[in-house]
Amino acid sequence: MKKTILFIALGLSFLSVAQAQRAVYINDVKLKATVLQQLEQTYQTTIPNGHYWYDRLSGAWGFEGGPAQGIIPANLNIGGTLKRNASGGKTGVFINGRELHTTEARYMQALFGAYYKNRFWLDAYGNLGLEGNIAIVNLYQLMQQQQQNQSYYRHNDYLDHSSGGNSSGFYIMGKDWSYSSF
After folding, report:
1. Which of 51, 68, 84, 139 could in theory staple to 25 by disulfide, Cβ–Cβ 3.0 to 4.6 A?
2. How far is Cα 10 from Cα 4, in angstroms, rounded to an integer?
3. What is the pTM assigned to this prediction?
4. How far, in Å, CA of 146 to CA of 150, rounded?
5. Is 102 helix (H, G, I), strand (E, B) or coil?
């Protein structure tokens, strides 16, 4: 009986030490052990210790000082406020307030034919637009289309504009205006 209690106590102390050594920071805020455990159980993964940035609006995430590494669900209530310099970017291209890393700006240049120093918003569905304006393109559709080397066309009845593109670029047009990256 004493040995069983001793093994249980040792097991719990090792568990406590392992949990205490966890250090996952998102947007400069350390996640509580319960939040970290819930995330790992929900998404069936282990999140390595480290410093990350997370964009609640789009779901994009990356290592602090680096480019986006992937997309996870948007609107998770984790971490602090996304900072302008979270990616260490000096490109003049901002998405949801975060200045893009050079790697991301190069990818945008490959995708659009150029990258534009400006401020954009990106939502969880891939819609991209200039801050304060409507979406001009769906980034996810454009990336898929370019990967498949196919053209696409989309019309938005509510906003009365159309967009489309192929592997050479994209266009968007409204009643009295148009934009093309061709």
Report:
1. 51
2. 10
3. 0.72
4. 7
5. helix
Task: Enter the tokens of residue 68.
Answer: 């986006």
d(CA 180, CA 173): 8
- Contact (CB, 8 A) for 97 and 91: no
Burial 41-80 (b: 16+ CB within 10 A, else e): eeeeeeeeeeebbbbbbbbbbbbbebbbeeebebeeebbe
Q: At 2, is the secondary structure helix, strand, or coil?
A: helix
Distances (CA, A) of 94 to 118, 152, 167: 6, 26, 24
For tokens 């801050």, the residue is 131
Q: What tens digit of pLDDT does each residue of 75-122 get?
A: 999 999 999 999 999 999 999 999 999 999 988 888 887 778 999 999
